[in-house]
Specification:
Number of domains: 2
Largest sheet: 7 strands, mixed
CATH architecture of the largest domain: 3-Layer(aba) Sandwich
CATH topology of the largest domain: Aspartate Aminotransferase, domain 2
CATH superfamily of the largest domain: Type I PLP-dependent aspartate aminotransferase-like (Major domain)
Structural class: alpha/beta
Radius of gyration: 21 Å
Distance between the termini: 26 Å
């Protein structure tokens, strides 16, 4: 076991143990386990936190993406422009709708979807009506350039669905992610900044029609106890998870502040030491879900950290369109041209960072990296 783990969920649970257990007991005693008051309250609270009018709890972040895409009218014959640097679920959700994911390059500074690459694809595309939506991912907790992406989408009549799985609480110009596009999709996977004790997700939106359709789709297309207007799914966020998340939501801003403090210390210590720290765009406020450095010596640094008992991980070693399941999309009519993403995949390395991480451990990790990078 690593002396310094990438993340430590035990520390968080111990700090909140009485509150979490009281919340779970409250649900058990209520005998309301599905679509009850805890979920409704969480939907209101998360929507308010994101600055949106509506929140709809679902069973996972993947389902949030899938149902939001469907609610925004994405379906067979459509294309959705997205980034190749993301977890596989981003592409899966597009494919679930019958649409085709189109992968364009990332900004070499932020590693998020590059607005100029989106614009270039739209300019060169032979069948513009097929493009239905843009799906940016706020990678590692750093906001994408939403103002530029939304402006492009407006010019071309496209929907914008934000993948906020790694970035709840991140902001651009003081405005939190999830509220820029037609829908924002949140993951409550346990390791996320706001993590459940199991799976969970939410769609946030200002569009009442999108919210209403996601509500139908998550519950078998119900419009009444005996009527089904859509072919829907079983994708409900259960009451136990909602109650736990309500406890944790009260602490989210403090956890983000702690993450930013530790990230700032890393950046200060590693400056000019042969590694490239994460980049925040001007006016952006990242939450540092992961602190991801870049170095041409990545593999040697990772091996050296492991020898020192320091956990690290590569998120993600392969671009999405390089996955075996997506071979047909890599070899399609227009193969993705993603040199910046390709270069980043060879250099990225995420190092330990979590709100309870002692600053002495931050210094220890930074010292180890500096020693390895200088070899």
């Amino acid at each position: 076991m690593a002396t310094i783990p990438l993340v430590d969920l035990t520390a968080q649970y111990r700090a909140l143990k009485p509150e979490i257990e009281a919340a779970v007991l409250r649900v058990l005693e209520s005998i309301r386990y599905i679509l009850g008051p805890e979920g409704e309250a969480l939907e209101r609270e998360v929507a308010a936190y994101c600055g949106t009018a509506h929140g709809v709890g679902v069973a996972s972040g993947t389902d949030a993406l899938h149902l939001a895409l469907r609610a925004c009218g994405v379906g067979p014959g459509h294309e959705v422009i997205t980034t190749p640097m993301t977890f596989f679920a981003t592409a899966e959700a597009i494919l679930y709708t019958g649409a085709r994911p189109v992968f364009v390059d990332v900004d070499p500074r932020t590693l998020n979807l590059d607005p100029s690459a989106v614009e270039d694809y739209l300019r060169r595309h032979r069948n513009p009506p097929a493009v239905k939506a843009v799906l940016p991912v706020h990678l590692y907790g750093q906001p994408a350039d939403m103002e530029a992406l939304c402006a492009i989408a407006r010019r071309h009549g496209l929907r914008v669905i934000e993948d906020c799985a790694q970035a709840l609480g991140a902001a651009v110009g003081g405005r939190r992610v999830g509220g820029f596009g037609d829908a924002g999709c949140i993951s409550f996977y346990p390791s996320k900044v706001l993590g459940a004790c199991g799976d969970g997700g939410m769609v946030v939106t200002d569009d009442a029609d999108v919210a209403a359709r996601v509500r139908r789709l998550r519950h078998h297309g119900h419009t009444s106890p005996v009527e089904h207007a859509d072919i829907g799914y079983n994708s409900r966020l259960d009451e136990v998870q909602a109650a736990i998340l309500r406890v944790k939501l009260r602490h989210l801003d403090a956890w983000i502040a702690a993450r930013r403090e530790r990230a700032s210390l890393y950046t200060e210590l590693l400056a000019g030491r042969g590694v490239e720290p994460p980049c925040e765009l001007p006016g952006a406020t990242g939450i540092f879900y992961l602190y991801t450095i870049r170095s041409p010596q990545r593999d040697a640094i990772q091996a050296g950290l492991a020898e020192a008992g320091i956990e690290s991980r590569v998120y993600y070693p392969h671009l999405v369109h390089r996955q075996p399941a997506l071979t047909p999309y890599e070899k399609g009519p227009e193969s993705p041209h993603t040199p910046h993403a390709e270069a980043a995949c060879r250099a990225i390395l995420s190092i330990p960072l979590y709100p309870e991480m002692p600053t002495v451990a931050v210094r220890q990790v930074a010292a180890a990296i500096m020693g390895l990078a200088s070899r």
